[in-house]
Amino acid sequence: APLGGRSRLARERPIRTRSGAFRHDDTGKNQSFGGTFASERELGCKPGAGVQPRAAATADGNGSEIAAPQLTPVKLVPFLVSIAFGLVVRFAIPVPAGVTPEGWQLLAIFVSTVAGLVIGPLPVGAWAFAGVTTAVATKTLTFKAAFSAFSLDVIWLVVNAFFLAKGFVKSGLGDRVATYFVKMFGKSSLGLSYGLTVSEGILSPSMPSSTARCGGIYLPIIVSLAKQAGSLPGKTANKLGAFLAQAQLQTTAHLSSISLTGAAQNTLGLVLAANLGYPVANPWITWFKAGIVAGPPGPAPPPATRVRI
């Protein structure tokens, strides 16, 4: 090869990857020998310089590129509004008789925290942690008192419920169950609605998070079905999308109450009852006996009634 140039071998040589080999030419195109490949340029390096990873991205177990995490900036206006709510309670409203200054200050922090959870200056977890930190920093609560709830079994039970529900979403098991019943019942819009209802009835006892079921499984399916029917937010929403969304809302509200593990708040309610002196013997069966009376009949009338109207 000429001095300073690259030989044909340097310009076009096989590079071994997990899925096979490819060749790179001067145009940056691939001449693959099978499998899924990417050029050296696509891998973030100069042609002929070897494969070098990009610093701004990582890869998962399948070799897919994952974007680097981004920090969420504080939304200034919601932040100031949330703080203002707490300051008004703390300084503008007199402390009622019988309430300690620390108790009133804790109420102000609580009001500010709830306001922030609603209008969202930060993600929920970050804002909630900021509220706890404020209570400790102002000596409204001791460190032990502020974090004592993290040692309660019910808190970790709720956390585990979200982990389990996330597993259903990430593995695609919930999607497969839901789409199977859509295939069975989906001859009409009413059939689609009842197909989703039956699938949630099967999933709800083993997926103890109504939020994860709705947002992670059923909402994407409903959006996909609505788009295929030409139903989009706005003028065409009532063709199918609004009908399925309202029907699924009623379904989740009723079926979450049938079993103890149908929603995270069910187990929390049971623990609160025990703390008040009303423990429930054999809780799963007892809850099911009460929930089976009102749960299953609830989702049936709304879809049929709406179709008739």
UniProtKB/TrEMBL annotation:
A GO cellular component entry from the record: chloroplast inner membrane
Keywords of the record: Membrane, Plastid, Plastid inner membrane, Transmembrane, Transmembrane helix
Topology in the lipid bilayer: Multi-pass membrane protein
GO molecular function, one term: malate transmembrane transporter activity
Keyword Transmembrane helix set for record: yes
Entry annotated with the keyword Metal-binding: no
Subcellular localization(s) per the UniProt record: Plastid, Chloroplast inner membrane
Major location (coarse): plastid
Disordered, as annotated region: 1-36
Transmembrane segments: 79-99, 106-129, 141-163
Similarity-based family: Belongs to the SLC13A/DASS transporter (TC 2.A.47) family. DIT1 subfamily.
Entries under PANTHER family matching the protein: DICARBOXYLATE TRANSPORTER 2.1, CHLOROPLASTIC
Protein name (database record): Uncharacterized protein
